C-alpha cells in the first residue's frame, strides 16, 4: 500500500476506534471499551463545566479508565447517553497519531493521542473536555 493509501486507512481506523468508544460507553459494553485504550493509557475528563459539582477526573491505565466509566455509567437507567462525534481532524505520523473531534451539538471536544499496536490503533492519551452549559436549578 502506498503512503497516501496507508494514511487514509489509518485515519479510517482511528475514526472507527472513536466510534467504538461511543458505542461501548452508550451501551455500557465495558469489555469492548477496554479494547479502545492502550494498556498504559492516560485519560482526563473535564467535567466542571457541567455545573453538577463534578470534579475533573485524571486516570492512568486502561483498567482504571474502564473501571471509572463503569462506576459512573453502570447504574444509569435507559436511555443512557448517546454520543455522536463530528469534525474529525487526524494527523498520522508513522505509528503515532493525534485526533481532535467534537461531540455533536458542540457539547465537547475529544483530543486523543493514538498509538499503533499489533492489535490496531489504541488511544494512549485521551481527553474529553465538556463544553456544556452549567446546569441551572429548577424553579
Describe this protein's structure:
By secondary structure, the protein is of the alpha+beta class. Helix content is 29%, strand content 37%. It contains three helices and six strands, in the order ααββαββββ. The chain has helices at residues 3-26, 30-34, 62-73; strands at residues 37-46, 57-60, 85-93, 96-103, 108-117, 120-130. The chain is globular, with a radius of gyration of 16 Å. The mean pLDDT is 87.
Main sheet?
Answer: 6 strands, mixed
Q: Can you give the mean pLDDT?
A: 87
Low-confidence stretches: none
Envelope shape: globular
Number of discrete helical segments: 3
**Numbering strands along the chain, what is their spatial order in the largest sheet?**
2-1-6-5-4-3
- Order of SSEs: HHEEHEEEE
User: What's the N-to-C terminus distance?
Assistant: 61 Å
Radius of gyration: 16 Å
Beta percentage is 35-45%
Tell me the number of strands.
6
Alpha-beta content class: alpha+beta
- In helices, the fraction of residues equals 25-40%
In terms of quaternary structure, the protein is single chain
